[in-house]
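Title: Prediction job returns without error message
Component: structure pipeline
Severity: low
Priority: P3
Assignee: unassigned

Description:
Job completed but the reporter wants confirmation the result is attached to the right record. Sequence as submitted:
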Amino acid sequence: MGTEQKAKRGARARRRLLSLLTASLVTLGTGVVFLTTAPPAGADPIERCTRTTGAIVAVDFGRWGGPVVRGCDTTPTTGYELLHSSGFTTTGTGHDGPAFLCRIGNKSFAKGKEYPTPAEEDCVLTPQATAYWSYWIASPGQRKWTYSPLGAMSRTLKPGDVDAWVFGATDIGGTRGRPSFTPDEVRAEGGDPPAPGDPAPPNVPPGTVDVPAATRWLADRLTNGQRVVDEGATDPNYLATTEVAYALAAADGEGPAARRIADFLGRPEHTGAYAYPAGKDQAPDATAAARLALVAEATGKDPRAFGGHDLLGDLVANVCHSGADAPQPVPGCATRGDFRTTGQTEGQALAVIALLGGGVTPPADSVTRLAQLQCDDGGFPSFLILDGQVCESEPNTTALVALALQRAGGHVPVVTKARSSLKKAQFPTGAWAATSYSSPGSAYATGWVAQTLRALGDRGHADAGLSWLSRQQLPGGSFSFEEGTPDPLLYATTAAVVAGAKSDLVTLTTKEPEPPTPTTPPTTPPTTTPPTTTPPTGPPAGEGPDLKKGSAYLAGRLIQGRYYESSRGFAEYGLTIDAAYALAATGHDNTTLRNIVDFLDKGGKDGTGRGVHDWTKVGTKYAGGGFIGKAAVLAESVGRDPRNFGGRDLIAALADGVCPAATPNEPRKCAAKGNYTYATSVFSQSLGVIAQVRAGETAAAAEPIAYLKSLQDPATGAWPSLIGEKSDPEVDSTAMAAMAVDLLPDAASRAAVDKALAWLAARQLPDGGFPGASGNSVNSAALAIQGLSLDADTYAAPLAKARKFLLSQQNKDGGFNVAKGGQPGSDVRASAQAVGGATGISFGVLTRDMSGTTAQPVPTVSANPTGPPSIITTGDESGGSASTGDSASGTGGSLAATGSRVTGLAAAAVALVLAGWGTVHVARRRRETAGGPA
């Protein structure tokens, strides 16, 4: 938040009394309690955050018997700032500093006590993966939570975003541990400020629509579960069929009923008959094309390839550029901006919503045309009238246009006036009439208006509409058109179902990100033999990222050329070592590499007086095998003595840290015999093994090696992310473990690596990427390259694809995105992993000769006052973090809950150890490599 914004906020605080939520308890969903309380000075009241302004955060204190507390910030920059500016306090860990969110509190619960309490979690090291604050996000229009691929400091917020923090456990795919409340429930009180004079919601008893009964009634109207056929007719009623599809998708988005309808409508003969009556190559019926596109979007199909047509492309191609008064008028065009052949406001609005739902920006003239239709009373007419024609508004049309303009953005005054019109038209019973001049309440109009007002933030009015609908539902589950009439009507029932499901046409057709689905692994790994040729000294031939630019990006973001920070003055040593690995792998900047290594080895201190061994914890009861192993591997890679690195014998420390048995009373310390102390992830264990084996201590590492091997799934060949806790197999951990086991000469180890590489290759996505906690992950692709390079001849094709994928994610500044399709912008951790990983050099054989460089004085660093802290995510060794711009992010891993992103949710959560995998070409099978410049 800028100084000017803070000043304005302070002025607002002096002008009015603020309240964080409201002044009471509001119960939503299934027993979820949202608490309201007075916020700190300068915070924004919850009602100021809307679907187009600001962002809302919800923190669930239910673990301790507390409520879900919400906060609002109308001008947030990051998820981290949103927490603090809306009234929450946080505490970090001793190992990683204030940037790692270990505790959260709010004065509205338990007088501001932060949780977990010190008795539950000492917050010295990373919390265990079963007990940490997980971070969930939802963009405008999304009805489901997504596990954040970025940490809170790295997530840049957009207007209408919603964040949630839940204490507990989750997995790499975010399939477990979701919030018990929905994004809509968090948004529920939000909305653009009502216009002065808007009436309060009607005082009616609560009520809900029996959605299952209504959908059963609708399903019974379908022929073969596919289409509506009117009585006495033989051809489908396509318009009615689309209406049923919307209702069934709103009631059960994952169910097959709506998809069966979409499959039917997507047959070329039916798409053509409904939307292209003039012929396949002629202009479509715009309303029909829009309706079909919405069906496709609501059921997960592609509107650009539906029934043999690009519905969205055809809509855009047939927007009127002139009207009926043009010298050569185009048939079907009344005026500029119309979609040809629509004629009705409904079709114009549906086309705008369909284009937006498909990721296409609608023509500005078409959106302006909708806005200009507004009548004096704020409503909208059913026909596309021209200037001077009589404007008679209808509630259902007004609701649809308001929904479209809200989604399009840029028309707040028009939408506000439409909202006021709808609220003023609501009867004391909660109903709306079908027209401005009729008196009976209409289920059709009430269904449309209720869903729109809920989407716009007027939940009280929407709930009053549902109350009225609940009293109008007929015994069979259907609805009639107006109250007092006994005959069920399909169109009234479909509108009531969408409203009763608390959905709307925009939410229904807004695409939510899906996790990538890997291909099925082969049942047997390919047979390979160790190579006899000398391994390459640079990256594989073929197209790949610019490693020189990538190295420059990494070097340019170091503090005084020595280290990265996770918060002001607090060095992020894990990420710093990741960058050193990357520079060692490429050989493009040995001077900066030397500066980093000297800072770590010669007693360099950050702005808080911490050195590298304040991070490894060597010599303390919290000594971490992964942290120590990571530092030792760096020493070995650059020709320093791991037995005297930073004044400590790291190899002896690893030997001393081998667990003789599990420690049930301290589960994070030792999961089993052979586990390194506090090595809570496969990454940590692998780093310790690599360090010991490279130091010639294979015999001393026998138990850690055996334990690492025991974690491999014998059926698939994959390794999980976490140690000592249930977790899923993942690309990053499997690649890392394969690099460690590859150093061993026996046949069983070779077979284990072969099986792991086959599993890795099968995870590759069609575009060359690999799935990780952040989606199609740069981090995972880089690690997969390192792993598959252990047998580069066998996996030449997937390696080439993976390198092209990394190239596609490199930005102009040389850095890399965290994931394809995610928040754009270069990220330090992802870049360290991508730069080193693209070389294909394994950590097991990484070597860089720094001779020819000159030692520079190790600087004394004072706390850096610039910039807010970057949040660290649990699992420094597991995966990418998420910093943007010039700030470095924390120790990656998958537990974005603490702030940064991570690759194996779990590993992330527990292991802050190798977050950057910057390096690894592996010359398969125990071969030493002195890499040349990449």
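Comment from assignee: result matches the submitted record. The longest strand covers residues 132-138.
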